[in-house]
Amino acid sequence: MVKNRTRPICLGLLLVAAVCVQAFALHESVPPRHPRHVRTRTRHVRWSPAFRPSRESLLRQNEEIDRLDLPRIQNDEQLHELIANEELLPIVESRSLRIDRRLVADRRYCRPWTRDFLKDLSEAYYDRFHDQIQVNSAVRTVQVQKKLRRHNRNAAPESGDLASSHLAGITVDIQRRGMTRQQIQWMEAYMMPLKEQGLIEPEEERRQWVFHVAVSGRYADWREQQLFANYPPDETWEAFTSIEPVSFQSYDPLQLDLPKF
Q: Can you give the pTM of this predicted structure?
């Protein structure tokens, strides 16, 4: 009798044990879920400027300042004196040109021929793209340049053969950030023949993302000859409005035999 009673009990225990083992095995077989790692692609824009900054370029800029016998503006007092004497002229905003709002009022000045260059460039750019160029920086004093170098290692020195040409008021920084590749190529193509004639010395800065352009005093003579040429001024810049940058490489606006910047 005992054996007959224990047999159903043993079978029941075995059945319960089998169910538990299966449940445990099912639980262990489910792999843990891990968050899915999605690969993101970072777009790297290749920096391949037509006007790469160099020591030689800084030397040429300072040589032009010395040739023109221009002072490196030391402080606000000297700056305001040059403004009062109209040796520095205000950069005026227009439909084709705007100024960075962060640029303080007494630093929105430059030499007359530099302002003429800005006017010519901005109008040609507007005719092509119906958009403005932006001036981020113009004249600076030695005091300002010293402060700038404290937090910007890329800034040029405030003295010496490699000093910043902003100190003489011949240079402007034109914003490059926000321009399309087509617009940047157009800017490079526009400035290339002027550089080849020694009328400007441009650089494309990498960290600040601007066109740094020092304008030679010879630009005033070149512009005057251009205005009194046999064709109207509007036609003078017609060649510059082509979208194909290649057409600019050999373009010689007036075939002037001028010394290099």
A: 0.71
